[in-house]
Amino acid sequence: MDLGIKGKLALVTASSGGMGRNIAHALAAEGANVVLFARTEEKLRAVAQEIEQRHGVRAITVAGSMTDRADVERLAEKLREHGGADIVVLVSGRPPNPLRDTLEETEQARWDEAYRSQLWGVIEVVNGVVPQMLDRGWGRIIAVTSASAKQPMAVHALSTVFRAGVTAYMKGLANELGPKGITVNCVAPALIDTSHRTGASAYTEAQAAYRKKLTPLGRMGSQEELCGVIAFLASMQAGFVTGSTVAVEGGMIGALF
Ligand SMILES: NC(=O)c1ccc[n+]([C@@H]2O[C@H](COP(=O)([O-])OP(=O)(O)OC[C@H]3O[C@@H](n4cnc5c(N)ncnc54)[C@H](OP(=O)(O)O)[C@@H]3O)[C@@H](O)[C@H]2O)c1
């Protein structure tokens, strides 16, 4: 199926590795030019190079943090130079490690950090880049949240609280931007394989084994299974889907819809 996004300009945040990198590949595979934004310039350049070589599209890099106003202004300027973003995919960095249960989250510094990395960074990027999209008559904004915002998961207190905040923020945006032809949705993953990550895992072995049993499918989801849903929400065909959260969690959420 042709998703109809060839030649569109797609911003993907937190894209120097992990999910953000994979989402940028998925959009580039559909012919979109991509703008990659994360803090580590070297990693961004490597991702840009592999995207350009593999997909034959343009990959532009901007090094900076989602939580730094000056960095986001530079990002907005770069997008403006290239005609403005058509598609914005908001991936965030991880919440503070180690993950903890609600009553264990007693340190204000961790709450402050989680607020900035999980919620404020998203708002900062939206404030910086969305005004450029308003007169285009078409746009797609997709935020990666977490299935935990619908069905809170053990040891995910910080992520749950602020991803619920992102979900509410996106719902408001969807209502405001619909008349401008811009759709705004969330993708709420859980249990997506992150074996790409090196170094300390966020989960103990026991937590990892427990997590696999949380879905009827009895396994982790792949990055491709997540990225395919995001690419679809960025497509022409998804034009009548807005204000929604699409769960990509192998059926972990027990609710009917
Ligand atoms: N896997 C799942 O099942 C699942 C479920 C729900 C939610 N999530 C969420 O999905 C997101 C991505 O996960 P992942 O596994 O891909 O993480 P990851 O491999 O740790 O990658 C995180 C990316 O975020 C970038 N980043 C961190 N802080 C940033 C900032 N302030 N500004 C810009 N970029 C920043 C990092 O690059 P730099 O260091 O270069 O900035 C890196 O490219 C996380 O928020 C995670 O909590 C995952």
Protein traits:
about 260 residues, Rossmann fold, alpha/beta, binds NADP nicotinamide-adenine-dinucleotide phosphate
What can you see in these coordinates?
- The chain has seven helices and seven strands; from the N terminus they run E-H-E-H-E-H-E-H-E-H-E-H-H-E.
- 40% of the residues lie in helices and 15% in strands.
- The chain has helices spanning 18-29, 41-55, 69-81, 108-129, 157-177, 205-212, 223-233, and strands at 9-13, 33-38, 59-63, 87-90, 139-144, 182-189, 245-248.
- It has a seven-stranded parallel sheet with strand order 3-2-1-4-5-6-7, sandwiched between helices.
- The chain has a single domain (9-247), classed as NAD(P)-binding Rossmann-like Domain (Rossmann fold, 3-Layer(aba) Sandwich), CATH 3.40.50.
- It is globular, with a radius of gyration of 17 Å.
- With 257 residues, the chain is an alpha/beta fold.
- Helix 4 runs parallel beside helix 5.
- Bound molecules: NADP nicotinamide-adenine-dinucleotide phosphate.
